[in-house]
Write a structure and sequence with these properties.
It is a single chain. The chain has a domain of 50 residues. The chain contains no helices and four strands. The strands form two sheets. It has a two-stranded antiparallel ribbon. The chain is elongated.
């Protein structure tokens, strides 16, 4: 089976303020819970088969990932803060 890999290359901004954040979105990942169907088969109170909306993707069959990166100054080893 084929597999798609997505990578993030990090480069700090030329000018940033400590605590500044950026968010990257990766959209359209197949929902593993419902295998991309958007539903799964269940049964109603009478035992009849019925489609149940996937609780994770809410019926879309896909999920999106949002990655937040926060930039902070590095702490030097052995530094006592003075």
């Amino acid at each position: 089976m084929s597999k798609t890999t997505r990578m993030i290359e990090l480069r700090h901004p030329d000018h940033f303020r400590p605590g500044s954040k950026e968010t990257l979105a990766s959209r359209g990942h197949l929902c593993n819970y419902c295998s991309g169907n958007g539903f799964f088969w269940g049964s109603d109170q009478y035992g009849r088969r019925t489609k149940c909306e996937c609780p994770l993707c809410k019926g879309s069959g896909e999920v999106d990932a949002f990655v937040t990166i926060e930039w902070k100054p590095s702490k030097r080893e052995g530094s006592d803060g003075a």
